[in-house]
């Protein structure tokens, strides 16, 4: 059993905190060397390991147990024996040491043979290997995935298309310091807007969203429209890293208004359907899981009178029913969940972020009740 399966979420978060910027660091180096495929593989490998520790995602061996339990058991036993053989090779009796080394080599060959069997099974060709770009590109089967990266010497995005080579989109006027300031400005503007009346204009928020449009999303949209020829209202997936995770990228809009005065001149949500994913692998797993589901049910957990399209037909929890206990029960019974409630974002400690529900003092924290479920906040 790997350590990631037995340590607590809080311990896991502590374990990766010291190296949390490493995946983005190495990816930025690969981008500067114009090796976009490697950049995608590196950032996915690093972020995938961190998310596995923090959220206890299934290991490849656990996935195999549901496909070929006999082979999975054989691999586990050989791994255990290999570890024991390695420990027994230490000693002073030469004959014993030689015998132990022979056993170790024999079991290593057996272990390698089992891995080869694994890799002949459909879906396990990269068992114990980091996913390749070809494997990761499957995440873009329903629309391009946009990975946003920021480090001291680089601020850019990589667009993973449905097919072909990835695209490098640079943000020449944006720096790491700029993004950190933008993140802080959004936090302050959001806090101020929370105390305003509905009819009051959110001027500060509008200006900040204009910056997001001009400096970040407009260069990306230009590539989507002119290079990829992506039709309007297509789905795109946003995969932010580092400080980009605190920026409402999907809400980007121009500060300039249309000639009729109704709405901004440009708005990302008018162009494309935006969704988020923490990693490409997570998106691939979700897509595969959806293929095996016969029924796709949808629950809306809200604390307002938000309307949904008639075709959605969700089960709705609202008002006094929108509690932590009700939400947890709904998560177990539905494929999709729409959360329209307040939340608390802890930028320095992601596992402390939480959703706030109806009951007084009722808080569902990501590190507690909600962590076994995959939530989609639409």
Can you describe what's shown?
The chain is of the alpha/beta class and 378 residues long. It has 3 domains: 68-119; 133-282; 293-365, no CATH class. It contains 12 helices and 11 strands. A 5-stranded mixed beta sheet has the order 3-2-1-4-5, with helices on both faces. Strand 4, helix 10 and strand 5 form a beta-alpha-beta unit. The longest helix is centred in the N-terminal third of the chain and has 26 residues, at 94-119. It is globular, with a radius of gyration of 24 Å. The chain starts with 8 loop residues before the first helix and ends in a 13-residue tail after the last strand. Residues 1-9, 53-57 and 360-378 have low confidence and may be disordered. It comes from Suillus luteus UH-Slu-Lm8-n1. This is CHAT domain-containing protein.
Summarize the structure.
This is CHAT domain-containing protein. Helices cover 44% and strands 13% of the residues. With 378 residues, the chain is of the alpha/beta class.
Features:
378 residues; alpha/beta; 3 domains; five-stranded mixed beta sheet; three-stranded parallel beta sheet; globular; disordered C terminus; CHAT domain-containing protein
């Amino acid at each position: 059993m790997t350590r990631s399966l037995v340590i607590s979420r809080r311990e896991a978060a502590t374990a990766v905190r010291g190296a949390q910027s490493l995946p983005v660091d190495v990816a930025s180096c690969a981008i500067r060397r114009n090796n976009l495929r490697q950049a995608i593989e590196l950032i996915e490998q690093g972020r995938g390991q961190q998310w596995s520790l923090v959220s206890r995602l299934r290991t490849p061996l656990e996935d195999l147990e549901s496909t070929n339990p006999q082979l999975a058991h054989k691999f586990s036993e050989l791994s255990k024996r290999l570890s024991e053989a390695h420990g027994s090779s230490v000693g002073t009796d030469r004959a014993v040491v030689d015998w132990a080394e022979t056993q170790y080599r024999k079991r290593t060959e057996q272990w390698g043979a089992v891995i080869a069997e694994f890799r002949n099974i459909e879906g396990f060709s990269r068992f114990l290997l980091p996913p390749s770009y070809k494997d990761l590109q499957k995440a873009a089967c329903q629309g391009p995935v946009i990975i946003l990266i920021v480090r001291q010497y680089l601020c850019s995005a990589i667009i993973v298309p449905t097919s072909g080579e990835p695209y490098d989109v640079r943000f020449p006027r944006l720096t790491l310091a700029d993004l950190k300031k933008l993140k802080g400005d959004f936090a302050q503007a959001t806090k101020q807007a929370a105390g305003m009346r509905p009819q009051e204009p959110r001027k500060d928020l509008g200006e900040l969203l204009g910056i997001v449009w001009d400096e970040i999303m407009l260069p990306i949209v230009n590539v989507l429209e002119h290079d990829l020829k992506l039709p309007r209202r297509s789905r795109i997936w946003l995969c932010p890293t580092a400080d980009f995770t605190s920026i409402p990228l999907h809400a980007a809009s121009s500060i300039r208004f249309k000639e009729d005065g109704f709405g901004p001149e440009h708005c990302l949500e008018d162009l494309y359907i935006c969704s988020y994913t923490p990693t490409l692998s997570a998106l691939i797993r979700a897509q595969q899981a959806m293929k095996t589901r016969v029924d796709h049910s949808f629950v809306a957990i809200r604390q307002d009178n938000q309307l949904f399209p008639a075709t959605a037909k969700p089960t709705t929890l609202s008002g006094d029913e929108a509690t932590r206990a009700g939400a947890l029960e709904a998560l177990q019974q539905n494929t999709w969940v729409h959360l329209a409630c307040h939340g608390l974002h802890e930028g320095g400690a992601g596992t402390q972020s939480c959703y706030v529900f109806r009951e007084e003092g009722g808080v569902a924290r990501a590190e507690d009740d909600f962590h076994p479920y995959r939530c989609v906040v639409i």
